[in-house]
Structure formats: structure tokens, C-alpha cells
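Lecture 7 notes: from sequence to structure.

We start with a single chain of 424 residues. Read the sequence below before looking at the structure.
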Amino acid sequence: MNHSKEIAEMIAKVAQEARRAARLLVRSSAEERSASLRAMARELLNQQESIIKANSIDLKAAEENGISGAMLNRLDLGKDGIEKIASAVTEVSEQPDPLDSIEDKQVRPNGLEVGRMRIPLGVIAMIYESRPNVTSDAAALCLRAGNAVILRGGSEAFHSNQAIAEALREGLSKTSLPKSAIQLITTPNRDAVDALLQQEEWIDLVIPRGGESLIRAVTEKSRIPVIQHYKGVCHIFVDKSASIERVPEIISNAKVQRPGVCNALETLLVHSNVAETVLPKIGSQLTDEGVSIRGCTKTQKILEEFDVAPATEDDWQAEYLDLTLAIRVVTSLEDAISHIADYGSSHTEAILTEDEDSAAKFISAVQSSTILVNASTRFADGGELGLGAEIGISTSKLHAFGPMGAKDLTTRKFVVYGEHHIRT
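Now the structure, written as C-alpha cells:
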């Protein structure tokens, strides 16, 4: 038997076990799922020493392999990392149950009572890179919504993912729910991903989380529906009525706090009426913080005392994931909206303005998954938006759009009550 066939058979077995677990989960109560999540959170804390040790092995290997910057930042759980991921699992356990509620109730003219009930999707496969916290976030959100999950993390977080998944499964084994509801693919062989993407009989949804190349590869190979998020080209537009003194702080937060994440600012648009006033303040702060600026002709002229490189067409559609920012001066709100429509990635956009009409027009016209008014793009995050944790951010509009929490891992079925009705 060749190695690829062995992997394919192993993946098929995992997928079938996940389906069996999903059939049990759909009959579980909200309290059973909450109790299981609390047990998982406790076990993460109980095993934090082994998880930290595993993470240090991955970090050391990453440094030896020359991985740095954004990738290394995502891999590092940090000093309080285990407490944070355990806290996120606990927060998910305390969320309202997304299942079984009947919505959109109506009584038809013939007396039929019609509603729609939320139900689990079934089995979800997560394919992700770098971030070991995704292991616990995905498991918690899937379980909250009554789904089984198959996890396949990147090789760079191999030991971290195994340690976290082992703790989660150990916690689950102490509850009434099946341990097989959470499974981790432990082989680093890429054939495992290819085999996973062929299990359309057993898996209902694939969510890839990582770089654009990973997501495109998964989308091209999958026989299963895929939630897509190719990249985050996030914009902030500084309107002519913006509070100038507050602008540099927001821009700095959006660009500098964590430049390697998908909700970091990549392109700044500034209204020409305030460009000469606000751009020098922004340029001074960003330059001090080590940001490299690429600007349009007007930006270069205004910031001539700084080392601003000319922006090219590629810069307007770039996701730098680094301390680089593209800046363009525009003549109106409409120009800003048009720029975002031409170059945006449907991820996150913000407007800084004191004009309610401008804010309303921006919110209505810009069709990205998260729109902010007078706030940093860094708030485009499931935890910050009240989801507890997020399983990913969808920039495709089917079936979810934006940061995805437990409710986004459900679908709805029609429930109809009659009194011996027949159709005539």
C-alpha cells in the first residue's frame, strides 16, 4: 500500500468519525455544550505548562528556519497566551445558545404556522496556518453551534496545535459529549489536506484561515463549499470634517499595533481639504514608529521632508502585513468610495468624520464586511465585536460575511405546524 493511499484512508476514517459525532451533537442540549466548553477551558489551564513547552519548540524551530515578523508574531502564544485562549473558550460557553430557536414566525392565510429553526451545519474542516489559538477558538465555536470539527494546522505550529487539541479532547472526554467531536490531523504531509478536501460525503464546510495562497489552493481543490477570505486590504478615509487632533492616534493604532494581521490598515485616503494640515502630523508619527510610506504625487509633495516613495498601481491593492502604508489624497467622499470599490478586498474600511451625512453615505455605499466610523480598523475582530471568538472572517457573502462566530456556523430549516392541513 502506498503512503498516499494510507493517508487517504486515514482521513476518510477521521471524516466518518466526525460525522458520527455530529449526529450525537445535534441531539445535545445547550447546557451539555456549555458544560463541555467549560471543561475544555479548565483542561487548557491544567495543561498550560505542556502547551507553553510545545509552543517554545515551535518558536525555536521557526527562528532557526528564518521565520520572522508577522508569521512569528502569530505563532507566539505569549506570556499569558494559555489564559487568553482558555478565557475565550469560557466566553463562548456563556454565549446564548444559537440552536433550536424558531425565527421569523408567521401564520399563513390557511392557518399554517411557519417558522425557521437554527440547526448545526454538521462537520466543519478548519485548515489554517501559524496561529495555534485557532485550534481552541475553532473547536469552541463549532461545539457551541453543535458541529463536529476537523482541525488541520500548519507545520510551523505542529507541537502547539497537538498540545492544545490534546487538552481540549481531554476536557471533552470528561463530559457527556463525544471526544471525536474534536479531531486534529497530526500528519504534516500535504496529501492529508488534498484528501480532506475530497470528503464531501462527510464534511459540510471548509474554512481556510491563512495567507492568500493557502485560501486559493483550498478553493481550487475542494469538492466541499469553502468560506473565503483572500486578503485584507483595509482602508481608512479621513474626511474633511474629521477631528484632526484625533486622526494620527487612530491611524497609528490601525497600522502599527499589529501590522501583520488582516485588519491592519494598508491604505490611507485623505480628503484634499485637510491633507496639508493632517498629513504632516500623520507622517511624523508614523515615521517615528518605523513605518515606510508610499504616496501619490500630492502626498509626496506634502510630505517632502519625509522619505516617501512613489505609490504604484500595485500599492493600492497590496496587503503589506508589515510596517508599510500607502497614502492617497482624494478630492471627495465619492472619490474615496470609488477607490475602495476599485481596490478593496471587502474586508474592513473606516471613515473618520464629524459629519453624520458623510458617515451615513460611507456606510451605505461601501460594501465591505465591516464598516467603522471614528474607530480603528483593528476592531474588526470577533472578540471585539461581541462574538467571544471568531472562526474566521468571510469576505464572500455566502453564507456569512465578516467575522464569524457560533451563529454563523448554523443554517436554518423550515418548521411548519398544521392542524391536519392538506394542500388543494
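The first strand starts at residue 102 and ends at 107. Keep this in mind for problem set 3.
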